[in-house]
Amino acid sequence: MGSVAARHLAVALAAATFLAVVPAANAGLVSGLIGAALPSCGSTSRPFAQFGDGGSYCTLKNNGFESGSAGWTLSGGASVVADNEPWFVSGQGRNALDLPPGASATSSSVPISLLDPYFRLFARGSATDGALRVQILFRGLTGNLTGILNASDLSPSGYASWEPSGDVASLLALPLGTSSAQVVVTSLAGSGDWEIDDVFVDPWLNRIG
Fold it and tell me: 82-118, pLDDT tens digit by residue?
């Protein structure tokens, strides 16, 4: 079984196990979360098919930074620059996000549930001594923070040129009551910049519908 298929099977088993042990008092809540997973997610595409991942993904708002920083909160010198991942998976884009050392960017919220287990993005780093940290902020229906996941630290040694990230998993850390999530990317480099482009969320429910 391929690694992508194996990960998706693991997600299915984890979700089934989770639902099996949820107390009856929470059953309605979990059912509601699952039922609400995709209606507001929007249209999907298969941006990672050429990399062996045939999954359908939703885009985050302004996921390729073609509208500047709209939909993102930038800090620490983060800025939108003229660049693009070379596969143009979201179309003929011209922009990317540049993160100098210590800079950070936070996306707008995207609907998420037990059946939205992965985020993926494209990254490139000129840094030689610091990772790109990817965090997920989980939020409830009122926008309240339900949890923070340090999801992944991308090593600069693997991103000297543009590369798609691996799956940034969120399923196994999803707190009850979560209805949306935000992606936070932070450059931990001491020198050199990171760039990111085209950030997606995987609505896994499309795989079993």
Answer: 999 999 999 999 999 999 999 999 999 988 876 666 8
| C-beta of residue 67 within 8 angstroms of C-beta of residue 75 | no
CA distance 90 to 111: 20
- Is-above-0.85 flag for pTM? no
Residues in the chain: 209
Q: What long-range pairs does 28-31 form, CB within 8 A, spacing at least 24? A: 29/176, 29/177, 30/114, 30/176
User: Residue 200: which CATH number?
Assistant: 2.60.120.260
Q: Residue 22: its pLDDT value, please?
A: 43
Q: Which of 51, 50, 74 is nearest to 62 (CA)?
A: 74
Burial class (CB within 10 angstroms; exposed 0-12, middle 13-18, buried 19+) of 142: exposed
- Tally of domains in the chain: 1
Q: What range defines the domain where residue 158 resides?
A: 3-207
Segment 68-83, tens digit of pLDDT = 999 999 999 999 999 9
